[in-house]
Task: inverse folding
């Protein structure tokens, strides 16, 4: 089999393994394309649709783009009502409308387990693409949403999550990263990713590795969803977290220095529809502050880019 040769118009593809593919269609316009789907993680069908849509759109925002339209992808058991499927689709439709986009179609198959996601098409200026590989030593790292969704949704599945904490985690997951992306582009930033299944430390590692630098994360500065620390301290465990822990167990790519077990758990907690992790050079700090305020973005400085390699999580 001959090796695939990518056209020059494919600005971001398999070779760089970034958050989404980017394809140049005009000198000042590129298409951003991404796809994500997974089983629902909360019981409410409408919320599940909104979460799935926000999560899928997040990859477009992580590249600095704007959403145009999406195509639903759903697997649905025969013994679940079609009314619930319609509610799920409505959650996604409403979330795309909030993003200024539209659901333009999709495809559904019968399966034993429900699954939902969206193939998302967006656009981005070629000179404003945010990439994982552009970290530079001295950059400050900012996180635009609190973490803890994996721990909290697992606690919910176990029947151990307070209703108010469930409401908080759903509100976080359905929040779009649109404002954060706009702020990053307006501030002239060039490096970002969204925090999803690999966890905060795992996605920071991806950026560090692709940029040939090191990253230091201050655990005490990382914002947490209500209840996340409490459930992490109880020793919660589940498949996605265990896989992340096993992958980074050797300590070479992600190391922990002086932090407790709960902080380690939360650093590797798989997120659904998490925030953006953006790198802010000192020369762009004022622009970032202005752009954040203009776009209503709440963000927290959680670390910095340093020399060397790998990620170190410190108190």
Result:
């Amino acid at each position: 089999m001959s090796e695939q040769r990518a056209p020059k118009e494919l600005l971001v593809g398999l070779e760089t393994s970034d958050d989404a593919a980017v394809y140049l269609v005009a000198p000042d316009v590129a298409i951003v394309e991404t796809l994500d789907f997974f089983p629902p993680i909360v019981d409410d069908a409408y919320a599940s649709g909104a979460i799935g849509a926000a999560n899928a759109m997040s990859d477009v925002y992580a590249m600095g783009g704007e959403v145009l339209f999406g195509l639903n992808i759903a697997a649905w058991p025969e013994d679940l009502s079609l009314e619930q499927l319609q509610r799920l689709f409505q959650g996604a439709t409403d979330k795309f409308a909030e993003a200024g986009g539209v659901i333009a179609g999709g495809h559904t198959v019968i399966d034993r387990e429900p699954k939902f996601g969206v193939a998302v098409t967006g656009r981005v200026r070629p000179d404003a693409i945010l990439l994982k590989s552009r970290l530079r030593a001295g950059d400050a790292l900012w996180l635009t949403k609190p973490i803890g969704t994996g721990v909290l949704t697992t606690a919910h599945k176990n029947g151990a999550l307070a209703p108010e904490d469930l409401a908080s985690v759903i509100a976080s997951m359905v929040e779009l990263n649109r404002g954060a992306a706009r702020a990053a582009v307006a501030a002239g930033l060039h490096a970002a990713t969204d925090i999803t299944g690999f966890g905060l430390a795992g996605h920071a590692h991806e950026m560090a590795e692709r940029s040939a630098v090191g990253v230091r994360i201050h655990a005490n500065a990382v914002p947490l969803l209500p209840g996340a620390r409490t459930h992490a301290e109880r020793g919660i465990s589940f498949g996605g977290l265990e896989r992340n822990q096993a992958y980074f167990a050797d300590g070479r790519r992600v190391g922990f220095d002086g932090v407790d077990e709960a902080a380690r758990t939360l650093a590797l907690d798989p997120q659904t529809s998490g925030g953006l992790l953006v790198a802010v050079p000192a020369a762009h700090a004022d622009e970032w502050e202005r752009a954040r305020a203009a776009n209503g973005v709440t963000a927290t400085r959680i670390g910095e880019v340093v020399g060397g390699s790998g990620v170190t999580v410190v108190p």
Summary: The domain at 131-314 is CATH 3.90.650.10 (Phosphoribosyl-aminoimidazole Synthetase; Chain A, domain 2). The longest strand covers residues 66-76. The mean pLDDT is 97.
